[in-house]
Amino acid sequence: MRVRLAIARWALLLAFVSAPLAPVAALGAGSAKANPGSPGAGRAAFERLGCGACHRVTAPSGGMDVAARVAQKGPDLWFAGSKLQRPWLSGWLKNPTPLSGIRYDRLGPEPASGRHPATPAGDVAAVTAYLMSLTDPQMPAGVVDMGQPMSRTGRIWGNRLFGKEQQCFACHRTGTRFGDQVGGISAPTLVGAGKRLNPDWIHAWLTNPTRYVPVTRMPVYLQGAYSGYSPEQMGQLARYIAAMGLETGDGATPATDTTPPAVTPWPVSPVDGKNLSRVETNFQFLCAQCHGAKGNATGPNASKQLEVLPADLTDPVYMAKFTDDQIFRTLTFGGPVNNLSSLMPPWGNRLSDDERHELVRYIRAVLCKCKGGGG
Predict the structure, then answer these.
(1) Which residues, including other chains, have CB under 8 Å from residue 336's CB and lie 6 or more apart?
(2) How far is Cα 195 from Cα 68, in angstroms, rounded to an integer?
(3) Residues 208-241: pLDDT tens digits?
(4) Do residues 314 and 296 touch, judged by C-beta distance below 8 A?
(5) Which of 88, 189, 236, 352 is deepest in the core (most CB within 10 A)?
(6) Would the pLDDT of 330 be above 60?
(7) Among 128, 99, 139, 133, CA closest to 116
(8) In whole angstroms, what is the distance from residue 249 CA to residue 151 CA?
(9) What is the DSSP pairing of strand 226-227 with strand 222-223?
(10) Ordered alpha helix ranges (H), the chain
(11) Contact of 165 with 228, CB cutoff 8 Å
(12) Number of other residues whose CB lies within 10 A of the CB of residue 283
């Protein structure tokens, strides 16, 4: 009996060993079919749809200048999972709507044209999963507490930081308590931002925007020469923006339509960045969004909705009122340093001393053709 059992066991073992194994590739293919919404399937769809032609999914390894930045057709996505909320991303891929009123791939402000192509319905879940898997491992989590609604004091301080201290709506469209939209169009809209953006990413972006966009039109507020906001204030501002579209209050009214409304076209002078000097490049990239390509206050953000319109830098009478030092300080610390509007942002952390001195000379020699201090 024992001999028979041993023979049977050996026969069973030989049958198992000699059975053909399923190819590894076949197993992988079966897994992909079983998980059509997996990040792996999403990556394949991302590549098949040609998304990588416009969007990078790996962090840049080296430095970047303005020319390299405007050569990009679309924003980087290597941190998409840290930045965006899954439901919003899925909905946007199905039905893309413009987030900004100007083209991403232009040096000077030119109107956004066309719409982002919609993702095929069968690929939405997979592409969403893939993009949400792309995260910044160094971004702190749990910084912004969304566990409780904002207090009335928190809303007041947030509104002051957003709309008074720096007037972020000079560039960002935002909602009002009355349900309409106000503000500039050169930066991504913040209408419904609480449904689109991860609160912790908002804080990370505010404190260090160049980590995510090395060459950005966003002022830097917490590094180097200019320290406009304390860490506590940055937390308050991030919490306030994270409430937009979720909680009621100034600038946080829920909005059903987050698409920037049509705006009156502004005078556009297409710029060939290859033939520009450094100072001309900086002016077109940073200043023209409000002051216009020719400095005559005709940029896309020069909206009558703003409390104060951008200055006409070509007006010799007006510009002669300011000394060169006053203009330099305004470029460094923003408008309030010279009792001007806080709509003028600080560029002290964005431009070097030499670059800001170049802009002063450019304004004098090219734009206003005037001397300063009443001369």
Answers:
(1) 342
(2) 31
(3) 999 999 999 998 876 555 556 788 889 999 999 9
(4) yes
(5) 189
(6) yes
(7) 99
(8) 10
(9) antiparallel
(10) 2-18, 24-34, 39-48, 66-71, 80-83, 86-94, 124-132, 152-160, 193-196, 199-207, 231-242, 278-282, 288-291, 316-319, 324-333, 353-362
(11) yes
(12) 26
Q: What does the alpha-carbon distance between residue 275 and residue 318 come to, in Å, rounded to a whole number?
A: 30
Task: List pLDDT tens digits, range 351-362.
Answer: 999 999 999 999
For tokens 């390509």, name the residue: 293
Give the other-Cβ count within 10 Å of 144's Cβ: 21
What would the DSSP string read from start to end of 62-116?
S---HHHHHH-SS---TTHHHHB-HHHHHHHHHS---S-SB-TT-SS--B--S-P
- CATH architecture, domain defined by 152-242: Orthogonal Bundle (1.10)
What CA–CA distance (Å, rounded) separates 217 from 187? 8
Give the pLDDT band of residue 274 (cuts 50, 70, 90): low
Encoded amino acid at 179, one letter = G
Instruction: Encode pLDDT of 187-213 as tens digits.
Output: 999 999 999 999 999 999 999 999 999
> Does residue 27 have a pLDDT over 70?
no
Closest by CA to 287, choosing from 360, 365, 371, 375, is 360
- Cα 344 to Cα 346: distance, rounded to the nearest angstrom: 7
Q: Which of 314, 284, 282 is nearest to 299 (CA)?
A: 284
**Where in the sequence of the chain do the CATH 1.10.760.10 domains occur?**
152-242, 273-368
